[in-house]
Amino acid sequence: MSLLRERTRPGLGIIEPCLPLPAKAPPSGPGWLHEIKHDGFRILARRGPAGVQLITRNGNDFTSRFPFIEMAVKSLPVRSCLIDGEAIVCDKDGLAVFELIRGHRTVASAVHCAFDLLELDGKDLRGQPIEIRKTALAKVLKGSRLSIVLNEHFEEDGAAVYRAACQLGCEGVVSKRLGSPYRSGRSPNWVKVKNPNAPAVERGADDDWGSPHWIRSKSQSRQTCSVLAPSHSAAIRKDCVLFVAGKLVFDAAR
What we know:
By secondary structure, the protein is an alpha+beta fold. It has one domain: D-amino Acid Aminotransferase, Chain A, domain 1. The chain has 7 helices and 13 strands. It has helices at 67-74, 130-141, 158-167, 200-203, 212-217, 234-237, 241-253, and strands at 18-22, 32-37, 41-48, 51-56, 81-88, 95-97, 111-120, 123-124, 148-150, 153-154, 172-177, 185-194, 224-228. The strands form 3 sheets. Strands 3, 4, 5, 7, 8 and 9 form a 6-stranded mixed β-sheet that branches. A 5-stranded mixed β-sheet has the order 1-12-11-2-10. It has a two-stranded antiparallel sheet with strand order 6-13. Helix 3 crosses helix 7. The longest helix has 13 residues, at 241-253. The chain starts with 17 loop residues before the first strand and ends with a helix.
């Protein structure tokens, strides 16, 4: 079935994203991969004949707010693609600070942390196993601009990854079942465990963080998540957690 026909957002041509089920603990044992959960906007980045669109999970068009992400997606060596990920903004120390991304202003420093590839050059990849999609995504992003990066995953024990993520101050982890396809809506193949001390817990799991209502209701508080992420400096990029998170995470866990 066409990407544009299954559970689409009216007028946007963007499918409903896959959403993780909340859990109290990550799955253990083999058969799962685990990703750091970043505190930002869930963004589906679509590139097609009409250009690039950056759409939130509830269908808000944020393309004009993230011009460097738009340019990065436009520069990828593909004819078309649909990439799932999270947009974050970092402070000068490389920490993701939610206050820097919320609101209606244009955010030139935003980075798209990509974790899934749903379509490539007209081919629907959602039925492929997640590890195949991630391999294809890594190839697409190889040598990409700094405003779109690969969100690394780990196949070590879920409890160890989660414990280390909490020690580092991250929002939590999302665990995904190996071999699973991509399905719109809540999926038992994706499991989310939040760090109870992360600022995102206070906002609630199902807020559309890009909506005007959310922006108005949360404008009084400073939301910060200690997630190291790439800045726009090439010298710093290679040392950021998105690229050496395995070492940093598991050093913290041991």
